[in-house]
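Q: What would this chain look like folded?
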Amino acid sequence: MKSLLSSIVLRSLFLVGLSATVASGAAFDGTQKDVATYGGIALSLVAGSRIAKKDPIKSFLSSPPVLWFLFLFNGVVAATVGFALDGVQGITAAAAMGLVSLGAGFGLLQSRGTRSRAAENHGMRSRGTENRGTQALATQGRRTPTPA
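A: My prediction, written as structure tokens:
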């Protein structure tokens, strides 16, 4: 029950933050509009990052197909948006999309390293005397503590 309630609250806060970011121009002018926009951005970022740490979303976002999509799509957009937009907007958008692409690329490298280590460990965990022999060789030069 507690998990369901926290999930509903987080998703509601995320949607409120997105709505404040998008719709603040229709309701406010000047400084109020800026405060509502930046407050909505902060709220949606905090709530979204908390949602992304929960298990179903986290496992989906860390899967290799999703990481490849994020890496390639955001890389292409980062390269294109610099030419499509002028000035500070183009630079900011290209930098933000580039950071997302780099993050997905590092996630791909980490998952590749984890998979290769898992394959190595799986190969060492074989049945029978081969496993016992490697354990004996691995502990051969080590001292065992003696009781006092």
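The CA atoms of residues 62 and 107 lie 7 Å apart.
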